[in-house]
Write a structure and sequence with these properties.
The structure holds two protein chains of two kinds. Chain A is mainly β. Chain A is 0% helix and 56% strand. The chains are: A mainly beta, B mainly beta.
Chain lengths: 109, 114
């Protein structure tokens, strides 16, 4: 079993839809939870990070962490064509950071 | 304007050749990392350095070498021992201090084999 699992997609949604991206993890000692966005042929850019269970909101993005279920989510509200990218979760602690394989999202007008 | 730069953007390697990928940061970060990205496999850690003049092997270090002589620079050499080097290579940095959180990435170098 991989330490971090992420649905590869692709996910295709119409503009304005609410998008839910998810990752699961196996190590209960993990304490950092991050989401990166990667446009085609570019480096990943940090979108959101959190350390605790619950929700963290930043504009149209909400990061949700459920430590009891070892499950994290990224919600995108009012999705835009410019949100079309691959989204990577990253989960870890002071010893390591494990990246998910990424979910490719396509938002069509 | 702080950030991480990687060069070149594209690199071609011939059989038996060693090539070096450049990574420079002006974020004053102590820690730097090299990842390899292949389709469907996510990011895999090659080497990392938490401080100048010290570095550690990651999960897939075989066929690669690094140096960390300056805080700002962490070059990666892909040696001829790396039999499948075609990939997208990403350099990252973080504040360090033993933490792995909030890594910031460069734009990447795509390595292709001729």
């Amino acid at each position: 079993q991989k330490e971090v699992e992420q649905d590869p997609g692709p996910l295709s949604v119409p503009e304005g839809a609410i998008v839910s991206l998810n990752c699961t993890y196996s190590n209960s000692a993990f304490q950092y939870f991050m989401w990166y966005r990667q446009y085609s042929r570019k480096g990943p850019e940090l979108l959101m990070y959190t350390y605790s269970s619950g929700n963290k909101e930043d504009g149209r993005f909400t990061a949700q962490v459920d430590k009891s279920s070892k499950y994290i989510s990224l919600f995108i509200r009012d999705s835009q064509p410019s949100d079309s990218a691959t989204y990577l979760c990253a989960i870890g602690n002071t010893d390591k950071l494990i990246f998910g394989t990424g979910t490719r999202l396509q938002v069509f007008p | 304007d702080g950030g991480i730069t990687q060069s070149p953007k594209y690199l071609f390697r011939k059989e038996g050749q060693n090539v070096t990928l450049s990574c420079e940061q002006n974020l004053n970060h102590d820690a730097m990392y090299w990842y390899r990205q292949d389709p469907g496999q996510g990011l895999r850690l090659i080497y990392y350095s938490q401080i100048v003049n010290d570095f550690q092997k990651g999960d897939i270090a075989e066929g690669y070498s690094v140096s960390r002589e300056k805080k700002e620079s962490f070059p990666l050499t892909v040696t001829s021992a790396q039999k499948n080097p075609t990939a997208f290579y990403l350099c990252a940095s973080s504040i360090g201090g033993g933490n792995w959180e909030t890594q910031y990435f460069g734009p990447g170098t795509r390595l292709l084999v001729l």
